Amino acid sequence: MKFVLVSGGVISGVGKGIIASSTGLLLKTIGLTVTSIKIDPYINIDAGTMAPTEHGEVYVTDDGGEMDLDIGNYERYLLTTLTRDHNITTGKIYQQVIERERRGDYLGKTVQVVPHITNAIQDWIERVARLPVDDSQNEPDVCVIELGGTVGDIESAPFIHAVSQLQRRAGKGNFVQILVSYVPVVGEQKTKPTQRAVSDSRSAGLNPDLIACRCEQPLIDATIQKIANMCQVEQKQVLAVHNVSTTYHVPLLLDKQRLLSTLSDLLDLQSIEKSSALIEHGSQMWQDWVGLTRGQDHTLGSVTIALVGKYTSLEDSYISVSKALEHAAMYCRKKLELVYVDASHLEDETSENSPAEFHKAWHAVCTADAILVPGGFGSRAIEGMVKAVTWARTKNVPFLGICLGMQLAVIEYARNVAAIEDAGSEELHPQAKDHVIVYMPEVDKTKLGGTMRLGKHPCIFQAGTEWSRLRKLYGTADQISERHRHRYEVNPAMIDPLEKAGLAFVGKDVKGERMEIIELPDHPWFVGVQFHPEYLSRVLSPSKVVLGFFAAAAGCLDDVTLSVNK
User: Fold this and answer.
1) What are 241's strand-pairing partners?
2) Dist CA 225 CA 194 (whole Å)
3) Share of the chain above pLDDT 90, in %
4) Which sign, positive or negative, has the C-alpha torsion 128, 149, 193, 201?
5) Taking the mean position of all CA atoms in its chain, how far away is CA 528?
6) How far apart are CA 68 and CA 88, in angstroms?
7) Alpha-helix residue ranges (DSSP H) falling in 45-178
8) Model pLDDT for residues 442-464, shown as the tens digit of each residue
9) DSSP readout, 265-331?
10) Quick one: pLDDT band at residue 367, thresholds 50, 70, 90?
11) What is the mean pLDDT of residues 498-525?
12) Fewer beta carbons within 10 angstroms: which end of the chain, N or C?
């Protein structure tokens, strides 16, 4: 097993996840089987209870793990299927060690950070690194580990100590560290922060083999030479990762700097046996990637999507949605113009308190080619989202509601078409007389963490729905499987009056009791899904739900439907 550790220095949030994913992609293009692990030093067991505006979206895996958003990057780039164990947190490690101590596994010894916590981290990494993660079901050849935060953080110390020990456990020629640093421009490109980061990393027991320098503009030769000289590395070990038009260009940028050749020398990748089928698959994967990425520079027109949500102050709150839209735009050869609209700005109260924000928000909604209402929790800004749904439905604007967005579409339809005037949600409108959205009966109402309906579940297309625009994208398939994250559902008791009013429930769960997909037959594209299609969207394989929505907005839905069913 070969390990590639990607860690940070100077500041966090400069692109470790993208560099880790891009490195994995390049390794996969030469026929290697690659897996990924993300280490988050926070004490939370997982990201499930974290505010999206603080930490970005919560990404969900097939097995129901609520994960850091970087896990989504790995899956999107590498076409892998990871598990909840591929995201390690301080909370998970300490929980495991304390449970062992309670069982008496340590035979009366004093349980300490070193060696018990650090050994537990190494054991976890080595166990998970060997899990098959792609269609080949082969044990991975290389594991890319991203260490969250920066060197020097107090909470990172046990993990840094553990991976420095893992380096020795793995053996010579089996471990490489890429340090991601930042080169600011203050009149000139400054190298001192990178020098400091390398020094701190070495003092912690990690000696970077490669230094990836994030920068606004391409590094000049003098800067690269200075970093190499002051950090005692060769110039080829300094990678310049400057800002590009899209993150999908980063693998091309690293490939141009011969990253694969350098890694091959450091890890002796030539010694790993690779099947001809995987080599051919990797080569084709790279050709497709390059073609799609370069095709973005030659798009045919643009499409404006208004994303009307609750957490728009941090765009990472909807990163999988935005990436899924990008994948669809690449497929359609269009340029995506994604406009984030704070749903609260659409509400009547804002027109009184901040007329400029009110009119700006409504201008964005009214001029968009399509409207997307994503997931969320809590009552804030709900009526603004409902108003956006009404606009899309009545003005024949393509609409996609995801999770909460679907539920609000049902509420809007119940109120304004089915004449259920006091229709509401048990979560959002507890005083409403008619709850068209209710708690799922099996959900624990007393605990928030890990108690929702999570993970991959099947959705069955219903008889008589062959007309569905969404269903046509799946050809002859009578069911699909998608990832879920919700604790509320459409009230089964309200299905009959809603169907009589014209709302079609195109997809249901295997028992036919839980509503999964809604659609309006007489609308260009009015679809709501209880699941999260964005979690399974990939650069080379866009989500068909999101692709259909985008194609409807771009005016090419019929062509795309024919294309995906060839």
Assistant:
1) 214
2) 13
3) 86
4) negative
5) 20
6) 10
7) 52-55, 70-78, 90-103, 118-129, 157-170
8) 777 667 666 789 999 999 999 99
9) HHHTGGGS---HHHHHHHHHHHHHHHHHHHHGGG-SSEEEEEEEES-TTSGGGGHHHHHHHHHHHHH
10) very high
11) 96
12) C
Question: Using CA atoms, how far apart are residues 370 and 239, in angstroms rounded to an integer?
Answer: 40
H-type alpha helices, 370-467: 382-394, 404-416
The 3-class SS string of 507-534 reads EECCCCCCEEEEECCCCCCEEEECCCHH
Say whether pLDDT at 153 is over 80.
yes
pLDDT, one tens digit per residue, over 84-124 is 999 999 999 999 999 999 999 998 899 999 999 999 999 99
Global pTM reads 0.93
Average pLDDT, the chain: 94
**Side chain identity at residue 130, one-letter code:** R
- In whole angstroms, give the CA distance from residue 165 to residue 181: 23
According to the model, what pLDDT value does residue 11 have? 78
Active site residues: 403, 532, 534
What gap in Å lies between CA 532 and CA 483, rounded to an integer?
6
pLDDT attached to residue 293: 86
At 566, the pLDDT band (50, 70, 90 cuts) reads confident
Angle subtended at Cα 53 by Cα 48 and Cα 55, rounded to the nearest 5 degrees: 50
Q: Rounded to whole angstroms, how far apart are CA atoms 115 and 238?
A: 34
Listed residue (70, 252, 108, 263) closest to 173, CA to CA: 263
Task: Please state, in angstroms and rounded to a whole number, the distance separating the CA atoms of residues 423 and 429.
Answer: 9
Q: Which residues pair with 356 in a beta bridge?
A: none
Dist. CA 463–CA 409, nearest whole Å: 22
> What length does the chain have?
566
For the record, the structure tokens of 332 come out as 């359609």
Query: Is-contact 149 39, C-beta < 8 A?
Result: no
DSSP state of 247: G
- Read off the pLDDT of residues 282-318 as tens digits, 9 standing for 90 and up: 999 999 999 988 887 777 899 999 999 999 999 999 9
> Is 213:238 a contact under the CB 8 Å cutoff?
yes
Of the chain, the end-to-end C-alpha distance in Å amounts to 40
Q: What is the dihedral of CA 386, 392, 398, 401, to 10 degrees?
A: 10
